Amino acid sequence: MNRNRTAMIVAGAALLAWLAGAATSNHAIPASAVVEPRVIESRGAELADEIARLHERLRPVATPRRPARNLFAYRAAPATAPTAPAPTPALTAAPAPVPLSLPALKLAGIAEDNGADGPERTAFISGEGQLFMVKEGETVTQRYRVTKISADVVELIDLTDDTLRRLALR
């Protein structure tokens, strides 16, 4: 058993030596060629010289004189004598109250279902960032109540002053 083991070790070592010899070469590495500067590199040097020259021109030669005005300070207004305030006219009548603006309501659609007493309609009204699905007698935006829904018009009554407002499909 020792002979077989020794023979295997020697054969393995010979195989490794053969592979190592095949992986390396004895070729001489040639010396690198001397690279001469190209036209681009000489232009880069010219550009660097021009940049240095321009930087020199940016530096101030003389210190600036005191400016005639300061751009960062406001000029003080000349002092004036106070004048008497103008008399205010007497109020003769109270100004009219400003009417409340109407909320932007739009009739988006009308749905109709067949009911026992005829068609039951539901109006889709958009306004104030919401969509209201209302039937007759229900309120919209706590300001209006639906009084009538026809095939293409919804009638709303204003609860603050009992005025009628109509919304039509477009």
3D architecture notes:
The structure is a single chain. With 170 residues, the chain is of the alpha+beta class. The chain has a domain at 105-168: SH3 type barrels. 25% of the residues lie in helices and 26% in strands. It is built from two helices and seven strands. The protein has helices at 2-23, 39-58, and strands at 105-115, 118-127, 130-134, 139-140, 144-149, 153-158, 164-168. The strands form two sheets. Strands 4-5-6-7 form a four-stranded antiparallel beta sheet, with no helix packed on it. β2 (118-127) and β3 form a beta hairpin. The radius of gyration is 49 Å and the shape is flat.
Structural class: alpha+beta
The tally of strands reads 7
Q: Taking strands numbered 1, 2, ... along the chain, how are they ordered across the largest sheet? A: 4-5-6-7
Tell me the β content. 25-35%
Identify the CATH class of the domain at 105-168. Answer: Mainly Beta
CATH architecture of the domain at 105-168: Roll
Biggest sheet character: 4 strands, antiparallel
CATH topology name of the domain at 105-168: SH3 type barrels
The helix/strand series, from N terminus to C terminus, equals HHEEEEEEE
How many helices in DSSP terms? Answer: 2
Oligomer: single chain
The low-confidence parts are none
Q: How far do the termini sit from each other?
A: 105 Å
Return the average pLDDT rounded to an integer: 82
Helix content: 10-25%
Keywords:
7 strands; SH3 type barrels; single chain; alpha+beta; 3-stranded antiparallel β-sheet; 2 helices; 170 residues
